[in-house]
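User: tokens in, sequence out, please.
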């Protein structure tokens, strides 16, 4: 049982450039803030920080939109070059309406615009999702261990909408060093009822909690979650994806 959880923002992280080590950037920010890692920590880093370091930011000027992207962009007053990027990053278009594109990415994520984002990047650029967010999380964890002997569980987070509710929340798109789900099936509640379907998305809850101190405009791309008792293991964000045969909306 977890009694108390702390959310510790890592501010003063330098702006990432292609080829940078995310682990080194995080450690630089921690040193500037007087922070040190502890055993049992969870490190949540934003997709944008990872994408910038991995060179997943592209100039719109270099994108040649297709006739379809041009037509759709003109109809809904959207930049056709962004539409073209969305189409390229999509494995499947789920829904297109009123200028919004809901797509399934090549990773299997279902989200708006296939994760293509124009925020928190210079004007005229777009950020794409990391090619393999689980691998990115594992690399960050590995480098932190090699550099300072700190091996927190690592979550790469991004902001997704939700099918049944207004508002957006941070979710885990990459996981390393922890089990992303907590399965209560077969256990009994305080009234003796057997739990049959309860599986909690722990990694998503931690990502959402971290966003409370990250903010969207404060320039804080990483947070230490301290005090939460997670289950260590070789977890993957793919475990959080609904299998096609159980997806009632597919």
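Assistant: Sequence out:
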């Amino acid at each position: 049982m977890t009694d108390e959880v702390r959310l510790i923002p890592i501010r003063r992280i330098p702006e990432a450039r292609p080829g940078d080590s995310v682990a080194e950037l995080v450690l630089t920010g921690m040193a500037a803030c007087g922070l040190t890692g502890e055993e049992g920590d969870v490190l949540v880093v934003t997709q944008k920080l990872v994408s910038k370091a991995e060179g997943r930011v592209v100039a719109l000027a270099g994108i040649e939109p297709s006739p379809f992207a041009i037509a759709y962009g003109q109809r809904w007053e959207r930049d056709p070059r962004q539409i073209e990027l969305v189409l390229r990053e999509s494995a499947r278009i789920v829904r297109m309406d009123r200028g919004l594109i809901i797509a399934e990415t090549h990773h299997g994520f279902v989200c708006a615009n296939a994760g293509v984002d124009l925020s928190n990047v210079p004007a005229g650029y777009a950020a794409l999702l990391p090619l393999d967010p689980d691998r990115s999380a594992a690399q960050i964890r590995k480098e932190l261990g090699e550099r300072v002997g700190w091996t927190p569980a690592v979550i790469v987070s991004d902001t997704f909408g939700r099918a049944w509710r207004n508002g957006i929340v941070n979710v885990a798109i990459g996981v390393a060093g922890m089990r992303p789900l907590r399965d209560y099936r077969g256990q009994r509640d305080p009234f003796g009822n057997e739990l049959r379907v309860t599986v909690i998305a722990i990694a998503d809850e931690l990502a959402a909690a971290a966003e409370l101190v990250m903010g969207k405009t404060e320039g804080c791309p990483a947070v230490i979650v301290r005090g939460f008792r997670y289950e260590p293991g070789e977890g993957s964000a793919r475990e959080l994806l609904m299998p096609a045969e159980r997806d009632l909306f597919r």
